[in-house]
Amino acid sequence: MSKIQLTKEIAYEALQNFFNQKPFVLFGTGISCAVDQDFGMGALEHYLKTEIPKRNLTKQQKIEWESVLEALSQNSDFEAAMNSINDEILLEHVIDTTAKQVSIVDCRNTFKILNKKTPWSATSMFKRLVDRLPETDRTLHVATPNYDLLAEYAFTQAAIPYTTGF
Q1: pTM of the model
Q2: ∠100-155-165 over CA atoms, to 5°?
Q3: Are the beta carbons of 35 and 113 closer than 8 angstroms?
Q4: How many helical (H) and strand (E) elements, i.e. helices and strands, does the chain have?
Q5: Does an H or E element contain 153, and which?
Q6: If you ran DSSP here, which 8-state letter would residue 114 be given?
Q7: Are 30 and 42 in contact (CB under 8 A)?
Q8: Residue-level pLDDT at 33
Q9: Beta-carbon contacts of residue 65 (< 8 Å; ≥ 6 apart)
Q10: Which of 1, 19, 74, 79: CA 20 to 30 A from 90?
Q11: According to the model, what pLDDT value does residue 165 have?
């Protein structure tokens, strides 16, 4: 039995074949910002800069947080600046504070989207994509690195059954 070595070319061809078979949607922060700019990284950065210092931080945590702020002041991107956090408790503070901010923005928008008071273009986009899938395979693959629930709201509004994988 001979082994096939995975090369860049073989991987690229496999990816191209996968994406040629049916659509794959990567639902990123950009589309969430179409609903509310506060879903964006800029708003999250501002919120964390305000809220993290209010936490009861140890000396080491303060030093790490200052290194994040220093990196940001030198025009580092937000996510790269966060890489200087090593303290697990500080990281938990960042995660909890991020969840709180996303939840606030999500709550502000949920009912407006679901009651169609806020136009949400993702609904028609998903509906169009699903309606064009073959009858034999009605699965649309969607990945979202977002913390918000906007993709789920679009599916709900368009009456598209979905599973989150959780």
Answers
A1: 0.76
A2: 70
A3: yes
A4: 8, 2
A5: helix 150-157
A6: H
A7: no
A8: 87
A9: 52, 53, 57, 85, 90
A10: 74
A11: 74
pLDDT at 148: 81
Locate 71 and state its tokens.
Answer: 């990196």
Residue type, 104: I
Q: Which two tokens stand for residue 56?
A: 């009861």
Length reported for the chain:
166
Residue of 117, 127, 107 whose CA lies nearest to 39: 107
Structure token digits, residue 164: 């989150």
Distance CA 113, CA 152 (A): 11
The CB-side HSE value for 98 (13 A sphere, CA atoms) comes to 16
Cα dist from 119 to 39, 53, 108, 111, 131, whole Å? 16, 36, 14, 12, 20
- Res 166: pLDDT: 67
Provide the Cα torsion 82, 85, 89, 93; round to 10°: -20
Burial call 68-83: b when 16+ CB within 10 Å, e when fewer: beebbeeeeeeeebbe
Coil, strand or helix at 101: helix
Cα dihedral 81, 87, 92, 94 in deg (nearest 10): -20
DSSP conformation class of 50: H
What residues of the chain score a pLDDT lower than 70? 1-2, 166
Place of tokens 């699965």: 139
